[in-house]
Fold this protein.
Amino acid sequence: MRVRSDELTRDDGLWAGLTLDVRDERPRPGLCVFIGAGRRLLLAQESRPVLLAVVDEDLMGVDFRRTDAYRSCVPPLRADTARALAGDPERWAHRFARHLAEAPDGPLHAGRWLLTSGTRLLRWRPAGCPHGEYWSSMLVEGHPDGLVDWYTHSGSWEVLPLRPMPDADDGRVKAYRKQAREGTLPPVLLWWVSGLDCHLILDGHARLAAAIAESVEPPLLELHRTLPHDRLAAGTASAVSLYAHELARFARLRAVHGPTVPDGTAVAGPRLARRLADLRVDEQPTWAWPLPDALRDAAEWPGP
């Protein structure tokens, strides 16, 4: 696998994340989503079933069962590394991008991806809600069985741990709680999976537990697919064409009504900038592969 990373900046020039251009000749990634008949969805890691899920008939949620087979695709993070990076999301993003590129059991496959700290989860917190309370409410509960509730949490994209969350007095959590208080806690790595309409924790279960225990904002990095090169180029060309068409329309009006009519750049320019910015971060559905027979019967599926 070859991964080229480029910086993603906001309109104000501040860092927003990384774009990952992945070249991969494998037929599918090590951490892979499969879909099958009967609204079934399976997450497998190197052929090990990790999460078995069935979408409800009324499309109000997803029943799931975890297998405890998930292994993080990121190596254990050392305390001295956390201190050296000092909570800098840009430096952590580059580190996680390197780990994801090197991991044979991670989710990356050929295409374009985003690794960004601007996760949508931060947009939904009610005003005045303590950090610990909010993030506890965003966690999908239940082990080994549970429910991703699309009715109660419609559009809020919950966080689904791939293994049970550790307690606040767990040894790893205690170590991370100190880093949370110091502001050096490494980010929690999330992966948005469209078929579940929620975020999976790829790495950082103990770090998220520590942030909740200390009621601080957990640093986050979110991974998701974005537009491939051909669709990005087509969308950019369409946006530029619309911009040119709008300027031509204003030019015709100026020819009839005189220079009191603006040239249109004040209207069309910001609109073009927004369209181009949206294309850079556009979210694409998670790829899924047909469910092989060998995995279909590998474990008991959730639900009645």
